[in-house]
Write a structure and sequence with these properties.
mainly alpha, Methane Monooxygenase Hydroxylase, Chain G, domain 1, 5 helices
Length: 164
């Protein structure tokens, strides 16, 4: 008879994943504050920090999947099932914690997607405002064209950039 699998690795992996998602969420919130305060250097610094944290978050996400697969295999279950589907094979006293960790991770993922969309919108509006200001100050530097469908085409580089 094989030894009974340990559920501790799954719980610790989920906690680590939750920690990484929370750190990423914090960075997105800080970036949003920097965008609202028009702190360009801080926004740029946060882009690099967000990229690094995203890598750590991806790594942290892979680990729970591996521990769940190991636990499922040791319990004679399919390794293709999700953790939520496998909760019944975990000890009764761990099920509420597993459910809570899964729910919290899913909530953070939802918040991260929302924050990313908001920050992207703020960045786009900031770029648009700067572009409009440059248009007023140097209208001869911008050539606006339209696509075949009548949409505004992306602007060509301003003349002062093209000239070097």
């Amino acid at each position: 008879m094989s030894p009974k699998p340990s559920f501790h690795a799954t719980i610790e992996a989920l906690r680590a994943e939750l920690t990484e998602y929370a750190a990423l969420h914090t960075l997105f919130e800080q970036q949003q504050q920097n965008l609202l305060h028009r702190d360009v250097e801080a926004v740029l610094a946060h882009i690099a920090m967000i990229e690094e944290q995203t890598q750590r978050t991806h790594f942290a996400r892979d680990f729970p999947e591996a521990t769940v697969s190991t636990y499922a295999q040791a319990a004679g279950e399919s390794t293709t099932k999700t953790l939520r589907q496998l909760i019944p094979i975990y000890p009764e006293e761990t099920r509420p914690l597993l459910k809570a960790l899964i729910d919290e991770i899913n909530l953070l993922v939802h918040r991260l997607r929302r924050d990313a969309r908001q920050n992207q919108t703020l960045l786009a509006r900031t770029v648009q405002a700067h572009e409009e200001a440059l248009r007023v100050l140097m209208p001869e530097s911008f050539n606006q064209t339209y696509t075949a469908t009548g949409q505004r085409a992306p602007l060509s580089a301003p003349a002062f950039q093209a000239a070097g």
